[in-house]
Amino acid sequence: MERDARFLVDLHRDFQPIERDMGQHYLVDNSVLNAAIEMAGELSQKHVLEIGCGPGSLTNHLLRVGARVSAVEVDTGSLEHMNRHFEDEIETGQLHLIEGDALTVEWPKDIDAIVANIPYQISSPLLERMQREIRTIPAVLLVQEEFAERMAMAIGPLDRGPLGLSLWLDYDIEIGRRVPPSCFSPQPRVTSCLIHLQPINRLESLESQVDRRMFRQITSQCFSDRRRKLRNLLKRSPRRISRIPGWHRNRWQDAIRSLQEHPLMDERPDMLEPEEWLVLCTQISEFEA
User: Fold this and answer.
1) DSSP character at residue 108
2) CB–CB of 54/120 below 8 Å?
3) 209 CB contacts (<8 Å, ≥6 apart)?
4) pLDDT for the residue numbered 4
5) CATH for 212-285?
6) CA-CA distance, 170 to 206, in Å (whole number)?
7) Choice among 8-17, 124-133, 144-153 with the minimum mean pLDDT
């Protein structure tokens, strides 16, 4: 029998009960899987990292278009299933299974793209790892719709926040197809969304020397209370400022005092455009004590 998404998922579910705590919601809609492949572009002969392969419904589509796939999976039952039903591709080297936690296991060094239906509970730390280690690699991810909107800052000031601003430094983000719960087995309680991350180095293109950790600390602190003005939010130094070489509480306070007349200091966090955040954070980052 030819492998398809529903067949693979049903085989897996017959063999092993669903672990809902692990976010196991498997895609069974071939049109969504095709949309993910199309969004990723030409994948033939490309080395693709898949995170959380589960029963292999997405893996199967990636292999069909000629990709070489490294699939990370922490669940031993899923790995046993993959070894049984993808034996030929594993033998030829077209598919390589990596057992372990996607947040800590070593990723291949030569990947060309990431395509994954990621477990929703690791979405934020996974993106942090991508930005830290492989931010020049494009990705197509399936995430919760609300999370996708925050990633892309899709609804103006409402979705503007530290997540989207951090990603803006490294990616152009496109929201793709909405995916209703009926496309999964078992069905989640939320609508999902395909999202495409295309690498772009805005620090280089805008000739900014801002420290990335500084940028994240400042935006996270400011968005802790959207109603207050920046001059009040920035009076207190970020909790982890000392982790940035050369920075400490006194230097921070001197830097903020030097910016008291800056017009952006009278704005509230969600009113600043991403470019304005970069200007402000750059000026703080470049302050010499």
Assistant:
1) P
2) no
3) 203, 282, 285, 286
4) 87
5) 1.10.8
6) 12
7) 8-17
